[in-house]
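ligand=protoporphyrin IX containing FE
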Amino acid sequence: MEVAPARPVPAVTLRPENQYTSAAKWFHWLTVPALGIALLSGMTIRFIVDDTKMAFYALHESLGLLLLALAVLRLGWRLRHPPPALAAHLPRAIRIVADGVHLALYTLLIVQPVLGFFTTNAYGFPQQGDTAFLGLIDLPAFMNARPDLALQLHWGHSILGWLLAALIGVHVAGTVYHHAWQKDGTLLRML
Ligand code: HEM
Ligand code: HEM
């Protein structure tokens, strides 16, 4: 029986200098599920009317602050550890788009939770009691309630949430395109 040859893995991606470091991979893949849950919980809180609503706030806000801490650590680390060079054949336009999307994702990973934090404080709902950080730790009230400001911040948090979801869509579509069509091993750099 004839055995189909294994699909060749682009050698360029298997060289250590073309791989993200394991720290970069850990930062990346810890962020993915946490951000997925933060986005989904944020978008669904408004539809929850019973006692679980407060649990959703606690989950969403705690995860959001943990994501902020992770993003700050990640950025600090990233500034001192440049990523592996992109494959030489990639056109300039693709490089610019990929770098632009990565930069926008990093920016939103910081700005979005900060905006959420100010939103809930401006509503007059600091992370205390039912919505304490991790369900346990009461955080100090950061400001007096300012409902007018809260509405504007909420609006910004909502728009950036959808922008983040759209950027992740573009990012994942780009990865799938490179992996399945170009077969240039881009995904393997991050695995
Ligand atoms: C990366 C982290 C975060 C993401 C991706 C995120 C995303 C979202 C999204 C998509 C929404 C729905 C917006 C809408 O109402 O249309 C939302 C709502 C909200 N988020 Fe976040 N959020 C994050 C972090 C935080 C943090 C850290 C806090 C507070 C400490 C927070 C507080 C809120 C509040 C109070 C709402 C309004 C929920 C409601 O009553 O409908 N978020 N978030
Ligand atoms: C959930 C949200 C995600 C966020 C916020 C995110 C964020 C990022 C960022 C900021 C980078 C750039 C890393 C750097 O150069 O420092 C990156 C790289 C990468 N991501 Fe994601 N990512 C997400 C989801 C995914 C998913 C689901 C996949 C796979 C299907 C993926 C595949 C990749 C790959 C392959 C790279 C390396 C690209 C290259 O070769 O330079 N990402 N991601």
